[in-house]
Design a protein that fits this description.
Strand content: 15-25%
Radius of gyration: 16 Å
Helix content: 25-40%
Number of strands: 7
Number of helices: 6
Structural class: alpha/beta
Largest sheet: 7 strands, mixed
Length: 161
């Protein structure tokens, strides 16, 4: 069963996840980004591109979509945007929830001396990184890990999950 979605985000992971959606036969009604690389990917895929910001809900109105995916998007989305999809809005978070909600979760894990980290895909609700966790993938933090390598592990776990 295929579905239609809105994809929001500003990192390479956004485009990679979008490519996986398309490869599996799903459709993307709009890509919301201000990252030129993500916009180039969306343009090459023949997708509608919108800038984030004021009036986004109105600009997306009329899009009949099942899901909204916020993948590496760092902006809080207003309730009017979260309410657009028929099935729900899902966020990718680069940390295990609820323990590492908010920004820079990989860095906080390193600063706190954690030996395990992970990612979560969760339902978006009002608030930061709230909502039921749908998928979680955990992995080891090695003594050699840096913020860069831990972010790379999060990226990989996001794609795999």
């Amino acid at each position: 069963m295929t579905f239609n979605s809105i994809l929001i985000g500003d990192e390479t992971l956004t485009a990679e996840c979008g490519a996986q959606l398309l490869a599996r036969g799903h459709s993307i009604a709009a890509v919301v980004t201000d990252n030129p690389r993500v916009a180039d990917w969306a343009k090459n895929a023949g997708l509608n591109i919108l800038a984030p910001g004021a009036g986004l809900a109105a600009r997306l109105a009329g899009s009949q979509v099942d899901w909204l995916f916020n993948v590496a998007g760092l902006r809080m989305l207003p309730r009017a945007v979260l309410d657009l999809p028929n099935q729900g809005a899902i966020n990718f978070h680069d940390g295990p929830l609820p323990r590492h909600a908010g920004l820079n979760a990989p860095v906080w894990a390193l600063l706190e001396g954690e030996t395990r980290h992970g990612i979560a895909w969760h339902i978006m609700e009002d608030g930061i990184d709230t909502g039921d966790v749908l998928v979680r993938a955990d992995f080891d933090i090695t003594p050699e890990d840096t913020a860069l390598t831990l972010n790379t592990k999060c990226f990989s776990a996001g794609l795999d999950s």
